[in-house]
Amino acid sequence: MIEPAPQAFRPLPGEDHTTLALPEVASWIAIYEELSSVLRLVLSRMDGDGDGTDAFRRNLSFVDERLTLWRDRHQALAGVVIDRKDHSLTFGGRYLKLTRREADLLDFLVRHPGRHFTTRQLTVLAWQNSRLSDAQVRTYMMRLRRRLREVGLEGLITIVRNRGYGADLPKVGVDGHA
Fold first, then answer.
1. Domain regions of the chain by residue span
2. What confidence score (pLDDT) does residue 136 get?
């Protein structure tokens, strides 16, 4: 059987990667997160390595690439750059050295704008470590929030009672400034 040639990316209706509107970017992130979730669920229920499974895996790979692109766009528009290798944050020309866990936590929250996560979810999703206690996560969060004030990002991490922690990136104008 001859495999069809991969098609070039065609944006979804209304999808404009050059947009300067953070809420629009956050909406595309939510759309691709939902698509990724649905594809992962379907794959988990499929048995065998047939052509259908391969097609779903290719679609999932495509969706995950688009999700990464939109998450990177969101960070760039907000002017928040997290370097996970260097464990650092740059914002508005200011540099902040972070611990590995702080960088992982912040990167996770920033890549999921507008969503909130419980301490238990953060231990598994941001750190892949279910042995950390809720109190330890709260301590990391408190310390990270205090450190973010040093670079002018005191409002970056949000807390919603009974929902958890999230990230609210600074609003950036057309001129690129917060």
1. 22-77, 82-167
2. 92
The Cα 86–Cα 73 span in angstroms is 20
Pairing of strands 80-83, 157-160: unpaired
Whole-number Cα distances in Å, 172 to 28, 63, 87: 17, 26, 24
> What pLDDT is stored for residue 3 in this prediction?
47
Which range has the worst mean pLDDT, 101-110, 123-132, 134-143?
123-132
In this prediction, residue 174 has a pLDDT band, given cuts at 50, 70 and 90, of very low
The domain 82-167 is placed in CATH, from the list 2.60.15.10, 1.10.10.10, 3.40.50.300, 1.10.1040.20, at 1.10.10.10
DSSP 98: -
- Average pLDDT on 56-63 reads 88
Instruction: Please state the φ and ψ torsions of residue 3, each to the nearest 5 degrees.
Output: -80, 130
**One-letter identity of residue 39:** L
Query: What is the reported pTM?
Result: 0.69
Ranges of beta strands (E only) in 29-175 are 80-83, 88-91, 94-97, 157-160, 164-167
Positions of E strands within 5-156: 80-83, 88-91, 94-97
* CA dist., res. 116 & res. 132, Å (int): 18
